[in-house]
Amino acid sequence: MNFLKKYRHIIKASMSSSILKISPLGSVWKTIDPFLICVHHNDEYPPGNENFGPQNGIETIYWPESSKSKRWSMYHGKKVPGFPAHPHRGFETITIVRKGLVDHSDSLGVRARYGDGDTQWLTAGRGIVHSEVFPLLNKDKSNPLDLIQIWLNLPAKNKLVDPNFTMIWAKDIPKYSFWKSNKKTEVHCIAGDFLGEPTTKMPKPPPNSWAADLVNNVAIWTIKMEPGATWVLPPTQVQGIRRQLFFFAGDSLSIDSHLMSRHSAIEIRSDASVQLSNGARPTEILMLQGRPLNEPVVQHGPFVMNSREEIIEAMNDFQKSRFGKWNWTDDEPVHGPINEKFVSGIPF
What we know:
Strand order of the largest sheet: 1-19-16-21-14-13-12
Radius of gyration: 20 Å
Number of helices: 3
CATH architecture: Sandwich
Number of strands: 24
Number of domains: 1
Distance between the termini: 62 Å
CATH superfamily: Jelly Rolls
CATH topology: Jelly Rolls
Helix content: under 10%
Order of helices and strands: HHEEEEEEEEEEEEEEEEEEEEEEEHE
Strand content: 35-45%
């Protein structure tokens, strides 16, 4: 009986013609093909010290478990919070920085500082090493950080393409506002067609991405709803597409007539209009959409390939080549104290 009470909202939702599956959100969000995983880092960092780390000292906290009980985490950083130099092969990372700044460095020679609405799209391809750290530039106030990172798979034919760095600045991300009864829903389109808008308005994905071919109908949208707002999510015009909503901020959300009272990942039909109705507090949703690759996925840490043999090859290649040259003196470089965004060193 307790089980039925706890999961009653899931059982009811499964009866919906528009809802296909509901899963609870954990520290790592489970995604649908062609995506691999998704993570949300939301940290209230304290004022920074002279090394851009926390002023009140570094706690021994482990991620992802730490995020459930602590206001912030060092993740894998030793001096600065974040993720020091680490390799990837076989997929793409899409990093949406909603608040705060990230310092990026990689084995292509690219260095960048971005955030506060920017998105960075990295094609690992045959192999890249990158560092993503969160410099605490403010010494007299807190340094909040809020980012979502999505892993998008590469098809087998593109697993070993040249790595690529693409920067999508906030000013270039289309934003659409919808009003009903004086309540606003705002949609930010990081990738994908939107309501028949010309594709020239949309940010251009990297050339070897699964998202680069329009027939795959890959879309990445963030949706913000004011309390009491209602909006109809339009259907796709392409068959064979999967669509997933991540309800990650807010108290309640109704999908069609089914009330969601806890944060969840919801797979819905992509060929049907779906009404979203918000509750009494602001709500945020991430939408991921795309044609599935329908290929084997074998993952070992930072490598995602199609077979165990390819994983072994990736590990051997990394040991031999380190996936390029590392131009910095340590594994968690910070790009100075000035609060300015930039990108440099992109090879052409």
